[in-house]
Amino acid sequence: MLFPFPPTSAAPPRVVITGAGIVTALGLGWKPNAEGFRLGRPAFRPVSLFDVSRQRVKTAAEVDLPDALPPTGLSRRQLARLDRAGKMLLLAANEAWQQAGWKPVNDVPLVLGTTAGGMSLGEDYFRQAVQSPGRHRRQPTRAIHYQPQVQARMVLDALGFNGPITIISNACASGSNAIGHAWNLVRCGQAERALAGGYDALSLLVFAGFDALQALSPTVCRPFDARRDGLTLGEGAALVALETLEHAQRRNAPILGELIGYGTTIDRHHLTQPQPEGNAALTAMNLACDAARLGPKDVDYINAHGTGTVLNDSSEASAISRWAGPRAATLPVSSTKASIGHLLGAAGAVEAVICLMALREQWLPAQAAFETPDPACNFPIVRQPRDAQVKVALSNSFGFGGVNATLILRRWA
Amino acid sequence: MSRIFVAGLGAVSPAGWNVAALRAALDRGEPLPVQPLERPGGDKSLRARLVPAPATRPGFLAHPRLRRTSPITHYTAAAALDAVAGLRALRAEKIRLGLVVCQQAGCVHYSCRFFDEVLKDPATASPLLFPETVYAAPASHVAALLENVTLANTLVGDPASFLQGAALGIQWLEENTVDACLIIGAEETNWILADALWHLDRPAVITGGAGAICLSPDPALSIGVALETITDVHSYRASTSRTQAAQAMRKQLPASSTVELLCDGLSDSPRTDAAERAAWCDWTGPRLSPKRVLGEGLMAAAAWQCVAACDLVSAERFPAANISLVGSNQQAIGARFRWSRPGISDLSPVTRAGNITP
User: What's the pLDDT tens digit per position in A271-318?
Assistant: First the structure.
């Protein structure tokens, strides 16, 4: 039953990550992404997915999808109905599932964050409905497969499991909220494991929207740089397999890391602008730390939301500085959006997996595009690739509409 | 946390801008009038049940955050204010409020307008429209309007997700991160939705609006209704049909009763109704089907089912109500609300609503 909840033990169980899947413009899967993020390699190029000739900005971080998807339980007909976002979701889910070594079962919640779902199908629907109103071919399929819950069902069918699907759409915090919600489901005894993450593909509507807002950088995405002038959009997906420590140990599963804290708040300041001092962001970080029972001195790296817009980065810089206090002066921070762009609903999930990579492989993700430090940032930006002892990493995600989320991950050793 | 109470209800529907209008329309039982809907290109006639203009301009529209917002935000805000009216009267700003806004189609009105502008010339597409296309926009605006919202989420899914939203709100109550939680299902009407529905469920008539229920663990805030159960989520898969999922949900709710209410999602659309009709074929007691009167309101319709059922239980017309949400393409979930007043163990006798069958 969803309610009443099952009786819970006095202390919530520890929740570990046993599988991770990632798709970004740096590549498909853990290895190419880890190599790219370690070096801070940028993956931007001219947009080829749609016409941007009349846009102010013409670059983004596009994913190169494979010619064929890995074999799963999807029929040829189902595969043919997957759009770009659905394919990225499936690739990341399959990698996480295979790495976790999970077998098809019932009752594995799937919690996903997305802002656009199958937006490209929605765009096709609109175009045909307006330009050829008498032509109905493929419209019913588009109307169904545009919806994110239908894309999520494909994951269930592909991997052969069953369980409740939850789609969270808190704009750019969606991926973090999805992982945080799944973490809560496991901790409160509603599930022993969960598959969670986020996905979003580039689409004309969203690209044009950010361009219309003049939020896109006409130069280079440089988070926390004094001369930053906007974000660059990207696309991708990331999912993690979460389970109780007891469950993972019972089946001798290799553990990639532990999720130890999650905090979320709402910033009511403005639909698209954060409160300048980052009050809600600060609260999210504090809530996550309270859950993790640690403080700034225990955190070794922050993967910032760091979009590269003037307002986001100054607000987040304020929040990090206030949260970290004296620790800020030596606390390494970077924004991996400088490599792969802003993945919107996928951002928080992808960045959680990047933190997992840093914890597993003991390096700090570099942010190559950074030249002139903003005086408001009193913390060091990781500019060069370097090895480091990373035991605890914190990831921030802040969304349009004001939902803020922070995740804290710990190295498993 | 074993006891959750309903602390308030709100509704905007084609019947009007409050719960009383919804109640009156459902009591009458007559399908509301259908209006033609203009469509670009216009090769086929589309129809809808539109939310009527409010009798007077809602005061909340003067809030700076709501000036340029779309109809879905207006409906969400009106339903929210309706549902928390009792809370605000009692404790005002001291209550930490959670907000879960559930949508299936979401902000289609501005999405269509913006994308139309983009197709014509992206260089001149309005930056004012784009932020309002985001699923999270209504929750953001309502959080700003209510001021005491400390946690907010937007869930997207088929209409059964409304009860997932309720479960999420209860989880926040359980964690003591909020004192009360507002669950809202909202949609707005647009030609593109009517067009899509024409492809998928031809007899259905699209409509819009919002329904809201406010949940609290505090019996003192109760309107006389407790949430007793939300069933498991029964997801549809290639190997689990909608009919099988609906039947699994049905099995988790009580046997047929002559005094309890079943509030279902039937809509006089034979193909769409088949799974739910089969699941509840054993039910011989009173039954209310709001969509037959109001139309296909997607997530708003799921919320109206819960609001209408709670309203009838609160008014002591039924001792309990079972909710059946058999979603279009994701899952089936059910719930049960029962009459509950502090110090009184049961409700009898029962007075039935006029339009409720049998």
Answer: 888 999 999 999 999 999 999 999 999 999 999 999 999 999 999 999
Say which of A1, A167, A399 has its CB closest to residue B136.
A399
| Sheet order of strands, B35-37 included | B35-37, B46-49, B206-207
- Other beta carbons less than 10 A from residue A293's beta carbon: 9
Give the C-alpha separation, B209 to B71, whole Å: 8
Domain covering B225-339 in this structure, CATH number: 3.40.47.10
**Delimiting residues of CATH 3.40.47.10 domain(s) in chain B:** 4-221, 225-339
Which chain A residues are Cβ-neighbours of B236 within 8 angstroms? 153
Question: Distance from first CA to last CA of chain A, Å, rounded?
Answer: 36
Q: Which residue in chain A has the smallest CA separation from B198? A: A140
pTM of this prediction exceeds 0.90: yes
Q: Which domains does chain A have, with CATH numbers?
A: 15-250 (3.40.47.10), 261-411 (3.40.47.10)
Q: Which residues contact B73 (CB under 8 A, 6 or more apart)?
A: B66, B132, B137, B138, B141, B142
Instruction: Supply the Cα-derived Rg of chain A in whole angstroms.
Output: 20
DSSP string over A23-67: EETTEESHHHHHHHHHHT----EE--SS--TTSS--EEB-----S
Is A136 considered catalytic here? no
Q: Is the peptide bond before A4 cis (omega within 30 degrees of 0)?
A: yes
SS3 A133: coil
Which residue among B65, B111, B167 places its CB closest to the CB of A2? B167
Residue A263, classed as helix, strand or coil, is strand
| Residue of A170, A350, A323 whose CA lies nearest to B151 | A170
Size of interface A-B (CB pairs under 8 A): 226
What letter does residue A111 receive in the DSSP assignment? E
Does residue A221 have an active-site annotation? no
| Tokens (6 digits) for A216 | 């896109």
Q: Residue B138's closest chain A neighbor by CA?
A: A401
Asked if the bond preceding B349 is cis, omega within 30° of 0, the reply is yes
Per residue in A70-79, pLDDT tens?
A: 999 999 999 9
Locate A82 and state its tokens: 């997957």
If one counts every other C-beta atom within 10 angstroms of the C-beta of residue B21, the result is 16
Residue (of B139, B130, B235, B236) closest to B185 by Cα position: B139
Backbone angles phi, psi at B185, to 5 degrees: -110, 125
Q: Count of alpha carbons within 13 Å of A215, Cβ hemisphere only?
A: 23
In this predicted model, what pLDDT tens digit does every residue of A3-27 receive, in sequence order?
Answer: 998 887 779 999 999 999 999 999 9
User: DSSP labels for B19-71?
Assistant: HHHHHHHHHH-PPPP-EEE--SS-SS-EEEEPPPPPSS--GGGGSGGGTT--H
User: Residue B340 has which token pair?
Assistant: 């509950």
* Distance in angstroms (rounded) separating the CA atoms of residues A148 and A234: 19
Interval A197-210: pLDDT, tens: 999 999 999 999 99
Are the C-beta atoms of B158 and B276 separated by less than 8 Å?
no
Q: pLDDT averaged over consecutive 10-residue blocks of chain B (358 residues)?
A: 90 98 98 93 84 95 93 98 86 84 97 97 95 96 94 98 98 94 98 95 96 95 96 94 98 96 96 97 97 98 98 97 98 97 60 58
CA distance, residue B28 to nearest chain A CA (Å)? 33
Hey, what amino acid is at A225? D
CA-based radius of gyration for chain B: 19
Look-up of token digits 């413009």:
A25
Superfamily for the B4-221 domain: Thiolase/Chalcone synthase (3.40.47.10)
* Cα–Cα distance, A301 to A390 (Å, whole number): 7
Angstroms from B102 CA to nearest CA on chain A: 9
Q: Which residue has the tokens 């259905």?
A: B204
CB B250 within 8 Å of CB B279: yes
The whole-number pLDDT of residue B358 equals 58
